[in-house]
Amino acid sequence: MKSILYFRIFSLIFLITATTSTAQELTAHPNIPRIDVHSHIGQDEQGIANYLLVRERLKELHNVDLAMWINLGNGKTPFPDQDLVLKAGQGRILSCISDYSSHDGFDIDPGELKSWMQKGYVGYKIWAGPPHRRLKEGEEGYPYIDHPALDPTFAAMEKIGMVAASIHIADPNGPWGKRTKWLPDPVEYWKEILAFRHVLERHPDLTFIVAHCMWAICQDAQIDYLRNVLGTFPNVHVDLAATFQYFDLVTRENLRSFMIEYADRILFGADIGRWSDPAQNENYAKRYFRCFQILETDQTINGSFFGDAPIEGLALPEDVLEKIYFKNAMRLYPAVAEQMKSITR
Length: 345
Ligand SMILES: [Zn+2]
Description:
The chain has 345 residues and is an alpha/beta fold. The chain has a single domain (35-344), classed as Metal-dependent hydrolases (TIM Barrel), CATH 3.20.20. The protein is 42% helix and 12% strand. It has helices spanning 2-23, 45-62, 82-88, 113-118, 151-160, 186-202, 220-232, 252-261, 281-296, 318-332, 334-344; strands at residues 34-39, 66-71, 93-95, 97-99, 123-126, 163-167, 208-210, 236-239, 266-267, 300-302, 310-312. The strands form 3 sheets. Strands 4-5-6-7-8-9 form a 6-stranded parallel beta sheet. Strands 1-2-3 form a 3-stranded parallel beta sheet, with helices on both faces. Helix 2 (45-62) packs across helix 9 and helix 10 (318-332) packs across helix 11. The termini are far apart. The structure holds zinc ion (ZN). Zinc ion (ZN) binds at residues 38, 40, 241, 271.
């Protein structure tokens, strides 16, 4: 009888401790706003309401300020209604125009890009990933992003100052043992990367933000290639969207050193999609917070935005976090800077 009582008291203490420790998981950087530059909300109003509720949960649970999102569309609504999104998102979501397959040519005439910019779209999201994911067997199309037929679009963007928003170039190429886990042909991967390099060589004045760290983040030597690209082309930047779950594939110190060295060129992103059930909001707040913990702490974090693999925290310095979380996004997207000022006024 006595032992049952002790067990109950012990369980109660355990429960109280566990609850308290969850409530105490606060960011050490409550004053740094965070901008997610890689989201796919489209123009779904319920989804937008959910984003705002995730923002509230992050504030309540973790004292985190997730201030804004850049909406890259979702392939279904390539030109989300900017005004609708801005209003439903209470000024916290800015939209891009998008094309989710460059392999059959760009949907927008290069001559029309300026008018989209004038309507307030902050960038042009281009998906130029592995050709096998878009082109059918035997279909010719434009498998690589350096095809001359695609070049007038890049030339127009460069001329008018339209940002290449989170352009997608390849898929994750893992180390030996996982080299074909996320793509069928790791050798072909380099054709995609090198084709993109040709585009970079042709357009030194076009601001590129390359999605998913250009998918050159899954092997230590790939990070050196990324250093080479960023070192060679000052107009190139990368976002972190969907990369966190791969951080265990590379050496923590290498990744940390890369982030510190290129802090001016890295932007936070999650690759968040849309969902209709508000019951999922808590889960999304948790996923965001795990990414923040990976960047901010030296703890091993169980899971990231996608997946449950334990990831070692990078404990990045505060000035590096500020750049990755919001300063770079405000510098590269002037409309974001303007909007940030108006929502914090
Ligand atoms: Zn994405």
